[in-house]
Amino acid sequence: MPPKIGFVSLGCPKALVDSERILTQLRAEGYVTASTYAGADLVIVNTCGFIDAAVEESLGAIGEALAQNGKVVVTGCLGAKPDFIKQNHSTVLAITGPNETAAVMQAVHAHLPRPHDPYTDLVPVKLTPPHYAYLKISEGCNHRCTFCIIPSMRGDLVSRSIGEVMQEAENLVKRGVRELLVISQDTSAYGIDVKYRTGFVNGRPTKTRMTELCKALATLGAWVRLHYVYPYPHVDEAIPLMAEGKILPYLDVPFQHAAPRILKLMKRPASAEKVLERVRGWRKLCPDITIRSTFIAGFPGETEREFEELLGFLKEAQLDRVGCFAYSPVEGAAANALSDPVPDEVKQERRARLMALQESISREKLRAKLGKVVEVLVDEPGVGRSKADAPEIDGVVKFKGGRPGEFVKVSIDRADAHDLYGRLK
């Protein structure tokens, strides 16, 4: 019997890709996955450590695995704090940081020798449904936002070669993937660390740069969706590709705030006036563009006037999709040292006000689609997503029928604040 590995994957899509790489290597070496702790010879827990709630969830998952199995290897972002993990769970077998597949495999080999089976080599494991996949183009981040500890966990920006990224994308599409979700810590910074070095895609010289990557991905015949796009000037170059239907008219841009003083405290360079000007320009070039963003309410020192300024920005920007987090003092974040922390009840109240405002905006945005026919990628019978909807974080389109992975046309006859409802055409 081949040895069995239990696997727990926590955190964001970037961590999910790390899990997929580990699972792919495990399969290539002949290990199989177990569906229960009791049925596993060893358990790997891929942790998240971005905010306090994620740390608690990760520690809980480690504790559960130890209680029900006893042999646990810890990896992921929280693994960048091995002493902290050992203080809470001293009996774990090994601890590695994020993006360390080789180190995870070394730990597995030390406690569960490899049973190599060449017939399973190079069979990639995906944790998403067969019709969509996350395509991670780089690791780490060069920014030093004061609320974030990602650089201390994942390091500075390291871009994958454009040839390697395109090879993975082509393989995914050949396997039936219909949607590629491009992710990284900072997608628009792709290639900066290698000075946009020229690589090769199917023998053609191609710069390691976001625009050139988008153009190359557009040739594969799949939906291409951009996530975690920092608003550099060259992001404007992607908008014509969206207007021409080459990549999805969708931008996920984490603006975080609008008040100049708060943005400065966050070490975010953008200004609300410039952002509004950019948004107007994007919509002029591509009227169908969907803009998603995230914001932080209750950042240290945020006054009521500055929060109202953020609300005013939202009213003016009319963003399509918005997420909001009440500020959480993550251990190791520079923002924790800032003066005038906002009381928890005020943070939550401001978050609720922001989301109530955005709900009214989103409702009107979706009502504008009544009577229209939209293209939908079916996730499960009766549920799919339009070009405006990323999996897990946006709304869905509901209807009767459809098979997972197929594209259908849906006539929209009802909408609420989050989802659309209609009939197959």
Notes on the structure:
The protein is an alpha/beta fold. The protein has helices at residues 13-28, 52-68, 82-88, 101-111, 150-154, 162-174, 210-217, 238-243, 260-266, 272-285, 304-317, 344-367; strands at residues 4-9, 32-33, 42-47, 72-76, 94-95, 132-136, 138-139, 158-159, 179-183, 198-201, 204-207, 223-226, 250-252, 290-297, 321-326, 373-380, 383-385, 397-398, 407-415, 420-424. The strands form six sheets. It has a five-stranded parallel β-sheet with strand order 2-1-3-4-5, with helices on both faces. The chain has a five-stranded mixed beta barrel with strand order 16-17-18-20-19. Strands 6-9-12 form a three-stranded parallel β-sheet. Helix 1 links the parallel strand 1 and strand 2 (32-33). The longest helix is centred in the last third of the chain and has 24 residues, at 344-367. The radius of gyration is 22 Å and the shape is globular.
Average pLDDT works out at: 90
Oligomer: single chain
Distance between the termini: 50 Å
What structural class do helix, strand and pairing data support? Answer: alpha/beta
For the biggest sheet, the summary is:
5 strands, parallel
Short description:
This protein is α/β, with parallel strands linked by helices. The protein has twelve helices and 20 strands.
Identify the notable features of this structure and list them briefly.
globular; alpha/beta; 33% helix; five-stranded parallel β-sheet; five-stranded mixed barrel; 425 residues; 20 strands
List strands and helices in order, with pairings.
Blueprint: E1 4-9, H1 13-28, E2 32-33, E3 42-47, H2 52-68, E4 72-76, H3 82-88, E5 94-95, H4 101-111, E6 132-136, E7 138-139, H5 150-154, E8 158-159, H6 162-174, E9 179-183, E10 198-201, E11 204-207, H7 210-217, E12 223-226, H8 238-243, E13 250-252, H9 260-266, H10 272-285, E14 290-297, H11 304-317, E15 321-326, H12 344-367, E16 373-380, E17 383-385, E18 397-398, E19 407-415, E20 420-424
Parallel strand pairs: 1-2, 1-3, 3-4, 4-5, 6-9, 9-12, 13-14, 14-15, 18-20
Antiparallel strand pairs: 7-8, 10-11, 16-17, 16-19, 17-18, 19-20
Helix pairs in contact: 1-4, 11-12
